[in-house]
Design a protein that fits this description.
183 residues, 2,3-Dihydroxybiphenyl 1,2-Dioxygenase, domain 1, 2 domains, binds fe (ii) ion, 4-stranded mixed sheet, alpha/beta
Length: 183
């Protein structure tokens, strides 16, 4: 049996953006995330399709990225009309609650509408939208390892309680086995 290490973390998450320079200004000038890599191409490597684009990567302090594609058509990713606007989002981490407060001040001074600070008991967060309509969160974790351990211990029972009480799925679905992955 092959044993794999646990996947180590986020490399990048990619979204479509309306305009590369507009997005660069927001992420680099406002959020202080350096533009670290740009790929410009006329076809898509994975599919071979002719579709000119630029691919932008903004780098976090831990070396991971948030990335964007500008297809040159002034079109951003369209939010799913069936999904409430607060659901799909991307959360970025800072080290202190004071920094969350400072980001709220900075964003509001730049004319960005900010929701929060919201206390989720394990994190405190603010929420706002980027120029593409992507909901962003800046958050600080406010619990320690002992509380994280309690959450891990309780997680499967909490999920089972939800699953047992939600409407059953319409169709059978396949459940994967995790025997080949190290914890
Ligand atoms: Fe979140």
């Amino acid at each position: 049996m092959t044993t794999l290490n646990r996947i180590s973390g986020l490399h990048h998450c990619a979204y479509r953006c309306r305009n590369a320079e507009e997005t660069r200004s927001f992420y680099e000038d406002l959020l202080n995330l350096p533009l670290a890599h740009v790929i410009q191409a006329d076809s898509v490597p994975s599919t071979g399709a002719t579709d000119p684009y630029v691919h932008l990567f903004f780098e976090y302090a831990d070396g991971s990225y948030i990335a964007f594609f500008d297809l040159g058509d002034e079109t951003s990713c369209i939010p799913d009309p069936e999904t409430p606007s607060w659901v799909n989002h991307f959360a970025m981490q800072v080290k202190t609650v004071t920094e969350v407060e400072e980001w709220k001040t900075r964003l509001e001074a730049a004319g960005i509408e900010v929701v929060g600070m919201t206390d989720h008991e394990f994190v405190k967060s603010i929420y706002f939208f980027d120029p593409n309509g992507i909901r962003l969160e800046i958050t600080c974790e406010v619990i320690g390892e002992s509380e994280r351990t309690v959450h891990r211990t309780e997680a499967h029972a909490a999920l089972k309680a939800w699953t047992d009480n939600r409407p059953p799925p319409q169709n059978e679905f396949y459940k994967f086995k995790n025997e080949s992955i190290d914890a």
